[in-house]
TrEMBL record, chains A, B, C:
GO terms for molecular function: ammonium channel activity. This is Rh family C glycoprotein. Homotrimer. It comes from Amazona collaria (yellow-billed parrot). It is a multi-pass membrane protein. The chain crosses the membrane at residues 21-40, 72-90, 97-114, 134-153, 160-179, 191-209, 221-240, 260-280, 313-333, 404-425. Keywords: Ammonia transport, Cell membrane, Glycoprotein, Membrane, Transmembrane, Transmembrane helix, Transport. It is found in: Cell membrane. Its main location: membrane. Residues 63-432 form the Ammonium transporter AmtB-like domain. PANTHER family: AMMONIUM TRANSPORTER, AMMONIUM TRANSPORTER RH TYPE C. Belongs to the ammonium transporter (TC 2.A.49) family. Rh subfamily. One of its GO terms (biological process) is ammonium homeostasis.
């Protein structure tokens, strides 16, 4: 399928040595670092039998595996199928969307296990991992998948791997500042994952601005069946988001509550998305772009507050608003960002992750500040915000302040990090495609040659008979 | 893609103000009602710490969340991906199938939380919700998705929302009569979900009879890849049905047993479906319609009895029979219903849900009536049928009688409710499409304009060169 | 869509009586055998209430259902969606891939429940089943799905059912020899499932060698969207593989550890697959065949050792190597096997299951032999390898020897069994297609007739107007 494009004239997209080199070197580095640092945590180690006796644990069901593994698998599906297929909507970039997402996530989770491990699970020179680390690694990579959405179709796999390396690193630093230094709550990652990931990606795409991108305008749309593939991604993200927001919450009521709040917010979000999608189109027709994306904003926007006593109606309100904001963003803000701020945001992550992420951070700050012993119970309040040790005198309103500050920190990290990474990716050595070859699988993938008559869904008996 | 159809001449399908109005008003109503009524149940509330001490619960793993959340997520997938994609088989109605299913289910679960909450979880003026409520809300909406199958392609989204509102209400009433007043068992919902939902939908479609529907006959079929998409729906329904039938069963053996019975029934059902699909076709070829649908009848038909001591071979027999009944129904009954009874059943829900649902109710009644202390154990029998309090003197045979009566009640509710809703939907103000525009996404959706040569799977180098 | 092929001239592929007869007879046999033999195990039986009291179990959460059901569902998805859709890559064999996989797996799990039940769960003349039996039945069928990959597109459904009958039987015998007589560990089935299944299938396809298969060469490739469907299969296999390898491990740390090891191995495998896929292609482009398959080799290759103290870096190394071996196999070995050894391996199972399965067996033997009390703890070591009863004097190094011997046993069983079954399938009475009709759904399936202009993604207004 060698099309007569000017591929390779303007840019050298030949990956044969560069991509393998990066993949193999980095994987070897992972093996060495894992060998030096990573070991099983106590609940995954064969010494668990002794551990159980020591800690007087009477049943294997108390192993954290049984509290979190089902949620882990749901999150895993969101990262690989959810994000992967959500981006398959482009007519000629399905392989790249799902394949590169696969590549960067597979690398990212390894590096995240290390980075987050050094910050959070480091004991006696070793990183001790368990199922919660796997979830957190998936979360961290989620922020990279989000950023990928902004630059989808415009970067080489090497650029994506480099971005992953840096973004995971910065994610872990930002997460450490928020969760440990500022001692804030962000179970579903409105700030750490969505706000950070989205503004990071938007900054990168701004720096990588392509003035002549309209040369590949014809490939930026979807076709009928690519929209259906994308709905697979959408629905898995939508359905499993309650698991996402509750996966690392405290055992018991917090995990339970986070799932309920998320369920409610997402349900409301679908209604307002449909309403505004129809309302903002002259002919009143629904737009698949909105249905695929804005219906998910409700999950993003309760990320921080889901494990708090947001209450079901509070969750509905958050979902209501975020569906509107996100849909309006797709209609009015995305064109504005592209034309005025030179932000070419392929998937519209500003509408799905950035704005709802900010809403999520703000809602989290307000919900925390409004917490009372009456609503949470005395012990419940302490447990919910971990007001123990050095933080036992912190009040809910102070907590709210720290929550709000965390939004700003995440934004600053995203802008600074995105600028740095954008500058690195701008170097002309990474093999990205020229403007007219963007959104085109043919550049990096062997694409099957299709002939008419060969495929059922286009079979035409008459033609087949007389070609 | 404005086709020169007579769209809008016969009917006004313009949704711009009507759809947003309904969505927004109803969502606001949900928020108000949730605000007044819905709160977290004790196991999702931050007071759970105190609750645990009061009830002497030693471990967080005793929280109902850990008993039911994995099953909940499976049920969630069935409702949104399972039903959504099962209906994608139509060549030009994929957006409508998966998108409208998404819309009605997202609204329905909110309304179901309220309706079912008032009947079952109402304490001191508040509805207290937990993971079991979420499952039950999904179940309730399942019955609407079933009814949607009968009218697929022939209704506007507003009609679907109105049907959802009424059907959820009636579902909750019927469920209350069955589970509380008649005190019957129906864990997998053969009666409450399938029999009720299917006959409700069939009554609606009968009243909405379109005499000139053959005008869109060319769009009622599938294409090769739409059949593959539909298989995604089929398989997720098939695989997760054991979770569906066990999701709200009693903790322990009942949940375990329900999963095993369902697994067995579904396996048997696949074999008889394949057998009869081949046998009833002159050339002996398999028909995707049967494989997509009749293979699921086994799950429907053990819905009531799955948590009982049906035994694995009993489950195989049920699956064996229901696969045959369902496949035969597709071949002979569906054309008959359409030509004689004016029932235009797009997805053939009569074969997949109505008849197998009836079988399920009957099998449940027989299995209950045949229960003995020998088989269940003394305590086991009491626990299985909840023969406690006012029901402690009820015998299995009386229980069987009540189970049988519940089938009749469900049918009556379905016919009466369906007639009422059908009459409402017949009003000419809801924006449904004219007969020649049925089964056509173009009416309510922005459909991407596809040009030849633009899409890989139809690329033809020669043509691209000389158009 | 009656194509002017010579279908039926060379071979009689008429299924109308043969397929139904086999399906119905066999299902009746299942019902009879289940009636005689299969009952609920104690944890799924209504007597569980009494059992709990007898065994002093205080909570229903101790029921094995809650330890294993989420993993069971993941495995279930892998068998039906994972394997089913992985094989949809062929342009004209999507129905056959997913449909026949459905048929053989649905039959196979029933027969596996019996066969494995007689060997492992037989008490007082009854097979007592629980959730672990369901998982093991799915595992057993997994080996048939693997073998199906080698003969995909070249066999009739009857041949597949016959192969399933025999292969499940031999699987159960081999499994009994390994797990019970040799007392080896193989939680993820590198030997019992992958090595056995793959070499069984390769032997069968070798015996069924078709010298003129190049007559259907044009149908052996993929098209753009069939590759995307196949990625659904790939990703579900990849994501849920940690559940596969941990599903039947001991409660607690072993299950936890198996999931972590598998997660790590698979992540590493993606990187080396991508590297070698690009490196081995002249233009440096990635090949979807590799991405769809070789990325999974890491899961196969830690199947035996996942529950052992392989450690995360050990898992990375295994994944690293198996990704390379598998990708190199696709490029160099598959053509060699076809041209020299007459092994026509449609899906390349030699690269995905056979070689990685052998690696898995070897890694398992080494890891077992290297086990020490220092690493496992005294009790941990006994528990990990079940060094109890008659095996309490067995040392790790002896265990390693038995593990290695098990690879050889599995290979011998596969070759002998495959030869036997291949010979049976070669009889000219089973209705397989002629060489030019291989990889063609039209033979066994009703295929929708597609006309141009009828489908959105090929709509061309001009053409539709003047055909």
């Amino acid at each position: 399928m060698e099309r007569p494009r000017h591929q390779g004239m303007a840019k050298n997209t030949y990956m044969r040595w560069r991509l393998p080199l990066v993949c193999l070197l980095w994987e070897v580095a992972m093996i060495v670092l894992f060998g030096v640092f990573v070991r099983f945590g106590p609940e995954a180690d064969a010494h668990w039998e002794e551990e159980k006796q020591k800690k007087n644990i009477t049943s294997d069901i108390e192993n954290d595996f049984y509290f979190r593994y089902p949620s882990f698998q749901d999150v895993h599906v969101m990262i690989f199928v959810g994000f992967g297929f959500l981006m398959v909507f482009l007519k000629r970039y399905g392989f790249g969307a799902v394949g590169f997402n696969f590549l960067l996530a597979a690398f990212g989770i390894q590096w995240a296990l290390l980075m987050q491990g050094w910050f959070h699970s480091f004991e006696n020179g070793k990183i001790l991992i368990g199922v919660e680390n796997l979830i957190n690694a998936d979360f961290c990579v989620g922020s990279v998948c989000i950023a990928f959405g902004a630059i989808l179709g415009k970067t080489s796999p090497i650029q994506l791997l480099i971005m992953t390396l840096f973004q995971v690193t910065l994610f872990a630093v930002n997460e450490y500042i928020l969760l440990n230094l500022l001692h804030v709550k962000d179970a579903g990652g409105s700030m750490t994952i969505h706000t950070f990931g989205a503004y990071f990606g938007l900054t990168v795409t701004c720096i990588l601005y392509r003035p002549n991108l309209e040369q590949s305008k014809d490939k930026q749309g979807s076709v009928y069946h690519s929209d259906l593939f994308a709905m697979i991604g959408t629905l898995y993200l939508w359905m499993y988001w309650p698991s996402f927001n509750s996966a690392v919450s405290e055992h018991g009521d917090a995990q339970h509550r986070a799932a309920i709040n998320t369920y409610c917010s997402l349900a409301a979000c679908v209604l307002t998305t449909m309403a505004f999608s129809s309302m903002l189109q002259k002919k009143g027709k629904l737009d698949m772009v909105h249905i695929q994306n804005a219906t998910l904003a409700g999950g993003v926007a309760v990320g921080t507050s889901a494990e708090m006593m947001l209450t079901p109606y509070g969750a509905l309100i958050v979902g209501f608003i975020s569906g509107i904001v996100s849909t309006v963003g797709y209609v009015y803000l995305t064109p504005f960002l592209e034309s005025r701020l030179h932000i070419q945001d392929t998937c519209g992550i500003h509408n799905l992750h950035a704005m709802p992420g900010l809403i999520g951070g703000i809602v989290g700050a307000i919900t925390a500040a409004a917490a009372t012993e009456d609503v949470y119970g005395k012990e419940g309040l302490i447990k919910a915000f971990d007001f123990t040790g050095p933080y036992q005198t912190r009040t809910p309103s102070v907590q709210g302040g720290f929550q709000a500050a965390s939004i700003v920190v995440s934004l600053l990290m995203a802008f600074a990090g995105g600028a740095l990474v954008g500058a690195i990716l701008k170097l002309p050595i990474w093999g990205d495609a020229s403007d007219e070859n963007c959104f085109e699988d043919d550049i990096y993938w062997e694409v099957p040659e299709d002939e008419e008559g060969d495929v059922y869904h286009m079979h035409n008996p008459d033609k087949a008979a007389s070609p």
